[in-house]
Amino acid sequence: MTRVLKIVGGALVALVALVLIALAVLWRGDIPYATLEQRYAAPTSRYLDLPDGVHLHYRDEGRADGPVLVLVHGFGASAANWDDWAKRLGDTYRIIAPDLPGHGLTRAPKGYQGGPDSQVATVEAMAAALKLPRFVIAGNSMGGGVAWRYALAHPERLTGLVLVDAAGWPPAPAPGGKAQKQGALMFTLLANPVARGIIKNLDNSALVKQGLEAALIDKSLATPALVKRYSDFSRAPGHRDILVSRRGKGSADVATPERLSVIDTPTLVMVGADDRVIPGADSKRFADAIHGATLIVYPGVGHVPMEQIPDKSAADLRAWLSRQPTAPAAAPPAHTITVRELPPARPPR
After folding, report:
1. Helices vs. strands in the chain: H and E counts, helices first
2. Burial class, 172, CB count within 10 angstroms (exposed 0-12 / middle 13-18 / buried 19+)
3. What stretches of 141-182 adopt beta strand conformation (E)?
4. Are residues 192 and 261 located together in one domain of the fold?
5. How confident is the model at residue 126 (pLDDT cuts 50, 70, 90)?
6. Relative to the CA of 83, which of 75, 104, 177, 204 has its CA 20 to 30 Å away?
7. What span, in angstroms and rounded, lies between the C-alpha atoms of 201 and 193?
8. Taking a C-beta distance cutoff of 8 angstroms, is the pair 98, 128 a contact?
9. What 3-state DSSP class applies to 275?
């Protein structure tokens, strides 16, 4: 018996040693902001000090005197996710893309609590500081959640609302009564408090790569440079605390048909029919709930149409904007769109 206990004890010691070695190998520290700015700041990068202590990074590009588009990125992403749209729309529009706190090159004070209210407040503080005229706000994924909440809080500031595979609905039950699973493994791990604590300070490049492949569908688009950018930004001082706490607590501030029915801002809903991160049916729910909304569905496209099909998605946005009452006089003619029906949404429990 003693011999067995010694063997078991030795095996446990060896296992613990292996785990500690693995943790040491995979451990990743912070990357200083100065280093990140040197790597990723663009010629159009600008900074603002906001009242809540946030040092906001944003990109301000395109036609300086054009109608304003404010573009809000998704979870773990950054202003750089809108580069393709900025290149295609900047001849007509002034494009402002902020990094939300916990993302990109934006610095947040220690103990900063992220969440829908603070994200909307960040966009509003930026708009006020820049003295923006009325503008169109567009958001992807989590940024779409920021956009529709902003439309509810500050309708007087907007001329348009664009939701791109937007977040916000409570999870719909799948067959068997369980909530539908998201396609990215990272989101599954971040939903678990034990896993969050383990992976927080470890090398997340493999998880980032899997998440990007799930979002982009075309795995060739998840290049090593793109994976590195996402991973690097997550290691900015303070970012991991915000990202982990933000994803862990979730939000009780969800979309409902009743809440969205009061939005009278002209609205465009864009969705990849093969979105593996947020069910495509959620976008149809947005279009159904917001009176007069236009829905564009992209067959074969995933969670980020602005990156996977930038030419078509930007052209569709330009065409929709050209039909709005405040459109520039020189806007190009409408672009033909392809629409595919999504399956009916399941009502939330």
Report:
1. 14, 8
2. middle
3. 158-164
4. yes
5. very high
6. 204
7. 14
8. no
9. coil
